[in-house]
């Protein structure tokens, strides 16, 4: 199945040129002309690699990269007229996998795309693992093979962070997890005391699984401590 490349740049000529080369290599191309449009593609379509400029309207490349890395681990290549060393370091620290300065050779960009896809998808392929049992609590069924949630049999799309949060909570219903424990498990980074990322993701997750997010049944807030997931016997039949 051909890989899908998201190309984001406010210059239509650059997008047209890159699309021409991507099509010739057999890739599918998604086009966006600013950061907002790029986020919409990411949230609604499957993307294997993102290639985008830094200087863009509405949401610049650094902001887009920072927002992407909250939910997506796909390879990212930055392309920009900015060729200062600090800009490259900033992009890499924010989670970019590679950096190409304008003006660039389209053939070089194609080579870098192929290298990132090999590194991310081919080299990391694992042998097929035995089927892992689904986790079921109430109307929720978490499929660990497909990383998909089902509510009364209906599939619900999850981001990588949302899946990891549910896996953590549903794996130990009734246990209280602190924000620090949740953050370091889901993001695999050191927790910052003023970071509200956990609260934001819990809110998004409640919107997906709770009948009334303001009165949650599954994910309970334990004031001053953190969050806990309801036990099976706490849920109404």
Description:
It is a single chain. By secondary structure, the chain is α/β, with parallel strands linked by helices. It has 2 domains: 4-122, Response regulator (Rossmann fold), CATH 3.40.50; 135-234, Arc Repressor Mutant, subunit A (Orthogonal Bundle). The chain is 38% helix and 21% strand. It is built from 8 helices and 12 strands. The protein has helices spanning 12-24, 35-44, 61-68, 85-93, 106-122, 160-171, 179-186, 197-209, and strands at 4-8, 28-32, 49-53, 76-80, 98-101, 135-137, 140-143, 148-151, 154-156, 176-178, 219-222, 226-229. Strands 2-1-3-4-5 form a 5-stranded parallel sheet, sandwiched between helices. The protein has a 4-stranded antiparallel sheet with strand order 6-7-8-9, covered by helices on one side. Strand 7 and strand 8 (148-151) form a beta hairpin. Helix 2 (35-44) packs parallel to helix 3 (61-68). The protein is elongated, with a radius of gyration of 20 Å. The termini are far apart. Pfam families: Response_reg, Trans_reg_C.
Quick structural summary:
The chain has helices at residues 12-24, 35-44, 61-68, 85-93, 106-122, 160-171, 179-186, 197-209; strands at residues 4-8, 28-32, 49-53, 76-80, 98-101, 135-137, 140-143, 148-151, 154-156, 176-178, 219-222, 226-229.
Question: What topology does this entry show?
Answer:
Blueprint: E1 4-8, H1 12-24, E2 28-32, H2 35-44, E3 49-53, H3 61-68, E4 76-80, H4 85-93, E5 98-101, H5 106-122, E6 135-137, E7 140-143, E8 148-151, E9 154-156, H6 160-171, E10 176-178, H7 179-186, H8 197-209, E11 219-222, E12 226-229
Parallel strand pairs: 1-2, 1-3, 3-4, 4-5
Antiparallel strand pairs: 6-7, 7-8, 8-9, 10-12, 11-12
Helix pairs in contact: 2-3
């Amino acid at each position: 199945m051909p890989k899908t490349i998201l190309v984001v740049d406010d210059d239509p000529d650059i997008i047209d040129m890159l699309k021409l080369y991507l099509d010739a290599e057999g890739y599918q191309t998604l086009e966006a002309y600013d950061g907002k449009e790029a986020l919409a593609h990411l949230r609604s379509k499957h993307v294997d690699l993102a290639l985008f400029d830094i200087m863009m309207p509405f949401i610049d490349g650094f902001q887009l990269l920072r927002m992407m890395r909250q939910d997506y681990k796909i390879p990212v290549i930055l392309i920009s007229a900015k060729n200062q060393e600090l800009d490259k370091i900033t992009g890499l620290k924010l989670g970019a996998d590679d950096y190409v300065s304008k003006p660039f050779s389209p053939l070089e960009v194609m080579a870098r795309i192929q290298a990132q896809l090999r590194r991310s998808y081919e080299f990391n392929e694992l042998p097929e693992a035995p089927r892992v049992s689904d986790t079921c609590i109430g109307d929720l069924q978490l499929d660990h093979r497909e990383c998909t949630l089902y509510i009364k049999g209906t599939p619900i799309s999850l981001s990588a962070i949302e899946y990891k949060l549910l896996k953590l909570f549903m794996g130990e219903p009734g246990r209280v997890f602190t924000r620090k424990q949740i953050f370091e498990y889901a993001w695999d980074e050191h927790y910052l005391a003023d970071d509200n990322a956990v609260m934001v993701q819990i809110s998004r997750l409640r919107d997906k699984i709770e009948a009334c997010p303001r009165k949650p049944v599954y994910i309970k807030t334990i004031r001053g401590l953190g969050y806990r997931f309801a036990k099976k016997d706490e849920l109404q039949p």
